[in-house]
Amino acid sequence: MTLQQLRYIVMVAETGTITEAAGKLYISQPSLTNAIHELEKEMNITIFNRTNKGISVSKEGEEFLSYARQILDQAAILEDKYKGDNGGRKQYCISTQHYSFAVNAFVDLIKQFGQDEYDFSLRETQTYEIIEDVARLRSEIGILFINDFNEAVIRKILKSYELEFHELFTARPHVFISRKHPLAECSVIHNEQLEEYPYLSFEQGEHNSFYFSEEIFSETARKKNIRVRDRATLFNLLIGLNGYTVSSGIIDKKLNGKDIIAVPLADESDMHIGYITHRKGMLSRLGSTYLEAIRKYLK
């Protein structure tokens, strides 16, 4: 087994086809196919299922790939440590719920480690995908929140995936509204005051459970609900429809706009915002730097 073979199977898993993977790896399709067959034979497993419709990762292949990604990540750490800035093209991925501090810290990370060549990814995505990204070692760090309502469910899933939650800070829930919203002058907002306004939230795809909601779930029924996929759409609708959402209260005017304000929300449990990591992984220098940058913005 070689690092090159591990890089091959990871690329095939990511692209989903031998043809595309071979192109990105700059090798012939027969060479790539042979390398995978040799690895499967050596390790006595089937990493990919082959059918007339193409290939897919097998169940045991998923587990093998998680270890392969970890080995490649550790190899990258060694190269970074001993080759210094000339260690080649850097790759890194973070998965997160929609938090401005996560974006700002990512900018700082690229400024420090980007150099001439890099391939960094910031996945502002659905809660369950964040957990899966870290579980499969596609991302080293995932950022999300837990509270009294979702904690039991989230921690159970994290445990099943061998993930750990590390708290960054505790936040009092805030209502994000337009500066021109009728409730903008309130020092504190109660749920009953929000009944007539549209509630905006990030949709969670096939895992669209209240437990995976990125926003605080309230027992108060909401008559008007709008779900979106991205930050810009949410804030545009928030302003245009006098809508609202509920989050940590941390606002960055460059990302969220100067027309958005945060007002404390009464009668809701605190949000414990933190990051998840894989128990089998060791935090890389990039990961440590990213977390340091986050803590800087949380001050």
Automatic annotation (TrEMBL):
Record field: transmembrane: none
Keyword DNA-binding: yes
PROSITE patterns recorded: HTH_LYSR
Molecular functions per Gene Ontology: DNA binding; DNA-binding transcription factor activity
Keyword field: DNA-binding, Transcription, Transcription regulation
Source taxon at top rank: Bacteria
InterPro entries listed in its UniProt record: LysR_HTH_N, LysR_subst-bd, WH-like_DNA-bd_sf, WH_DNA-bd_sf
UniProt cross-references to CDD domains, sorted A to Z: PBP2_LTTR_substrate (cd05466)
Residue span(s) of domain HTH lysR-type: 1-58
GO (cellular component) term, any one: protein-DNA complex
Family note: Belongs to the LysR transcriptional regulatory family.
Descriptive protein name: LysR family transcriptional regulator, hydrogen peroxide-inducible genes activator
Source taxonomy: Bacteria, Bacillati, Bacillota, Clostridia, Lachnospirales
